[in-house]
Amino acid sequence: MVTNRTFTMLKPDAVEKGHIGAILDKISASGFKVVALKLTHMTTADAKAFYAIHSERPFYGELVEYMTRGPIVAAVLEKDNAVEDFRTLIGATNPADAAEGTIRKLYAASIGENAVHGSDSDENAAIESAFHFAGREMF
Ligand code: DAT
Ligand code: MG
């Protein structure tokens, strides 16, 4: 298993607000190498499947609606300790609780529209990367 990679999405609110460049710049400046990258628009079926683990949560419908309302940037990132270091870089799920300087503190509006996704384990990083990218699109 690859343990030095993580998967991220710049979510619809970040794309709508024109933050793609600033967020990718911060990611690169934090030592992550982009090994896969694309702008894509998730279908309802895609978003339901991607977030299936949350299907019983009260916010699931809202989450699917939000993630499908516009394009996202999907990317695979490489760095030593990528999963944990990227979770630190993005900050807490709720931007109100996120540390100063984190991506969610800087760019997220609310817990529901929190600008960026980061995988929570090496296993999920591999699953989520394969969900969005073919092997030939990851370098
Ligand atoms: P994270 O994205 O930090 O891994 P998560 O996996 O618990 O957080 O939840 C996935 C997404 O679901 C999260 O980024 C935003 C949304 N979400 C989580 N908790 C929420 C809540 N209490 N109200 C609304 N949306 C929520
Ligand atoms: Mg999560």
Key features of this structure:
single chain; alpha+beta; Alpha-Beta Plaits; 7 helices; binds 2'-deoxyadenosine-5'-diphosphate; binds magnesium ion
Summarize the structure.
With 139 residues, this protein is an alpha+beta fold. The protein has helices at 12-16, 20-29, 44-50, 60-67, 82-90, 103-107, 122-132; strands spanning 5-10, 33-40, 72-78, 116-118.
Care to describe what's here?
The protein has 139 residues and is of the alpha+beta class. The protein has a single domain (5-88, 114-137), classed as 2-Layer Sandwich (Alpha-Beta Plaits), CATH 3.30.70. Helix content is 40%, strand content 17%. The protein is built from 7 helices and 4 strands, in the order E-H-H-E-H-H-E-H-H-E-H. The protein has helices at 12-16, 20-29, 44-50, 60-67, 82-90, 103-107, 122-132, and strands spanning 5-10, 33-40, 72-78, 116-118. Strands 2-3-1-4 form a 4-stranded antiparallel sheet. The protein is globular and about 35 Å long. It starts with a strand and ends in a 7-residue tail after the last helix. The relative contact order is 0.26. The mean pLDDT is 97. The chain binds 2'-deoxyadenosine-5'-diphosphate (DAT) and magnesium ion. 2'-deoxyadenosine-5'-diphosphate is lined by residues 54, 59, 63, 93, 111-112, 114, 117, 120. It catalyses: a 2'-deoxyribonucleoside 5'-diphosphate + ATP = a 2'-deoxyribonucleoside 5'-triphosphate + ADP; a ribonucleoside 5'-diphosphate + ATP = a ribonucleoside 5'-triphosphate + ADP. ATP binds at residues 11, 59, 87, 93, 104, 114. Belongs to the NDK family. Keywords: ATP-binding, Cytoplasm, Kinase, Magnesium, Metal-binding, Nucleotide metabolism, Nucleotide-binding, Phosphoprotein, Transferase.
